[in-house]
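Researcher: Here's the sequence for the chain we discussed earlier.
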Amino acid sequence: MRLVILSAFALGLFATDAARAEALKPERKVEATSDFAGKKPRKAAKDISGIACRPPAGGDYRCLVINDENKAAQFATLKQGGIVPGPSLPLIKDSAPAGASGRQPTIGCPQQGDFEDFDGEGVAFADRHFYVVGSHGCSRRSGEYRPSSFLLARIAAGNGEAGTPELSWRVADLLGAAGEVAPFVGKALDETSNGLNIEGLAVVGDRLWLGLRAPALGGRAFLVGGSVAELFKPGSEPGTGKPQLLAFAAGAQRGVRDLAPLADGRLLVLVGPAQEQDVPYAIMLLDPADPAGASELGQLPRRKDGKAEALAVLAQERGELRVLVGYDSVKNGGFEEYRLKLP
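Model: Thanks. This is the structure I predict for it:
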């Protein structure tokens, strides 16, 4: 297991750099042409929590959007004129899946709950597959263990048609072996307990990266890495792959809110409040091979009406990136496009 510890001196340097970080301004708002499906029938989604897009075909991007209150994900097409919601894709049914890889974990949350929503918090696309990960944390309001939020889904989408989701329980095995953050699994999601929950997901080759909103410890946020092949290996035995734990200086009280990979294996990290603190959201650049060199590319404008929770890279051009940011607590995600300069 690999763990990088950052000194107080390094954290101080990060704070100085963050103070000089560019204040980002959206290049355009990306309006939805119709409503994304909310939890209730005929109600628009107001809790978009993740998006990932395939490379464009014919100028349009085919994307998968997750709404953390549903059992399904939803396809969308990103066009120059806006984002077009498409068909929903059920990820789970009303009870625990019989064919999922691994075993349903036993989690010691304050309360025991039922099999309910997927609570999807991160979406990724790699090698002709979409991936969706549940929060893997106790429910924020009631503190319940809901097994439905402790699943990872993989959806084949290589030829334009979506396959039946493959499901795995083994992310919980990975988290339970992830060194410094493992004791926070199953703890309440508040500032006192700092319970672990996932909000970011990226896949690079066989490496799946989980971005943790919490715990956030001493100005550090965390990623947990594991093998895609190990997570989806057939059979009911628990996962045996060793996790890779990365710590990086994110700033006081900030955790990971989403991840997006670049072509060279580096990651964009959307950071924000680890709980409900009043700290700014920002986009950072992180090289998993050198987490101590993480840098902040810019802070997002404050929005009273929303929390930045979705990030996707659209293009990389001459040292610049075009990215899409979406917001929880805003109708249909309130998507915006930004342009970032790479160092």
